[in-house]
Amino acid sequence: MKTEVLQIRWHYDANDDHTPIYSVDFQKNGNNRFATCGGDSKIRIWKYTCDYESMNPKIEFLSTLSRHAQAVNVARFSPQGDILATAGDEGTIFLWVPSSTPAATLADDAEELALAKEFWKVKTVCRSMGAEVYDICWSPDGNYLIAGAMDNSTRIYNTQTGQLLFQNFDHLHYVQGVAWDPLKEYVVTQSSDRSICVYKFEKQIRDSSLPQLNFKSRIHRIEYLNTHNSKSSSITTQQTSDIEVDNVQDNNSKDEAYSLDPDPQTNANLDAVSESGTENASKITYSLYCNETLVSFFRRPTFSPDGFLLITPAGKLRLHGQPNTESIHTVYIYTRSSILRQPVASLTGFPKPAIAVRFSPKIYELRQVSKHSPPSSCIELPYRMIFAIACQDAVYIYDTQSCKPFYRAANLHYSTLTDLAWSDDGTVLLMTSIDGFCSSIKFTHEELGNLYEQQLAVPAKETTPAVTVSIPAKPEKESKSSKESKVKENDPSQPQKKRIAPTPLYPQN
């Protein structure tokens, strides 16, 4: 694998200064075509190519899309890959389709039009009286689009007509992330009010052509009993590194990881019962997520491609038995059977908050860990899925077989990361940053493993799988450039720093 900061002019203002890149997305079946958008109110289409032997990426400019009047916060291709949806600070969503001729607007740049190799035009406009749109997500069939906005709203649009079909204001603060279940059953929204809301997507009884989101659960706090003379059974009390825990359904978990919901019959009030009674017990409650002071515009959750897992960023974890200690940054993992109640596990060890999670679209066979034992998974699945977590300053890449990061890329950017995107074949991961640059991680097929060719089974709702988690391993070796140095975020009072080489960190196997 190879990590590289792609130092080209992605998005820039009238003074030719780099502007933030807020989002990136690959087009399905698009031959490594991807879109970026940012603070210059434009969307640009690019093509990623890479020489397999040298692993040197090449970015080819294809087109600039100019219709937005303010910053563009998110760009997402439809599941079929034929439409690009973009949304930003003016609250309008544009749906773009390829065109054989340029559609000139007042915002077009003559030089960019001359360099363009393809053209796009607006097919549909989704309008509302809402404020800035922070995140959007397509329905699996491409018929609907959900948007989370700064006015605390969640809205659903018809992608054919642009009509606003449904809206609610269940959150108390900005809606910064939305995710649509690939099995078409659930929709999840995440807000800076420290909560996620889970809905069931259904048709209205009076008019089956109109969708609605039926509110099912708000998950924002967890409660447990703190005892002086006994150890809690749902979250362990000791923190160490790089060691897996036993099955979540086993109450005697090891002391190194953080597993929630050990019993599938856990009550909906989220109380955890001590093993040795409730003598000298006191109830402790804490919020699961960061509050509105988190320095990020986005909290982007994601479903796994099989619909079995939901992972949410911006988590805060306070260890059982240690109520006075400072909470640690985490991401929470929900299974399909726990999505209405509480997370079943968390991944920790991040020095800064996580702001986005993205699954690779490909599913892989389990790796053979030992010659004398069959392959096993910390999440009881017959296959392995890969996902990336973007923190403010680094990207961690996991698989569901070990739940340990097999790659970590740090020291890539001066400022906060904003979004992640996997290529259609799962070999390229792109990440964007407020500093105006985009980075890539290129994998070989050998590093990722063999594709899982069997048909996926629909997850059962009545069972809770076994899950084990671990703290990200502290690498024993670090690959560093001779020019590398410690970098802090941009400070206007300091002289402009030069770009530096990224620092990929490889955990030892």
Automatic annotation (TrEMBL):
It is found in: Nucleus. Pfam families: Beta-prop_CAF1B_HIR1. WD repeats lie at residues 65-96, 126-167. Residues 1-204, 276-448 form the CAF1B/HIR1 beta-propeller domain. GO terms for cellular component: CAF-1 complex; nucleus. PROSITE patterns: WD_REPEATS_2, WD_REPEATS_REGION. Keywords: Chromatin regulator, DNA damage, DNA repair, Nucleus, Repeat, WD repeat. The keyword DNA damage applies. Residues 474-491 have a biased composition (Basic and acidic residues). One of its GO terms (biological process) is DNA repair. SMART domains: WD40 (SM00320). Its main location: nucleus. Residues 463-509 are annotated as: Disordered. PANTHER family: CHROMATIN ASSEMBLY FACTOR 1 SUBUNIT B. Belongs to the WD repeat HIR1 family. This is Histone H3-H4 chaperone, CAF assembly factor (CAF-1) complex subunit B, Pcf2. The gene is pcf2.
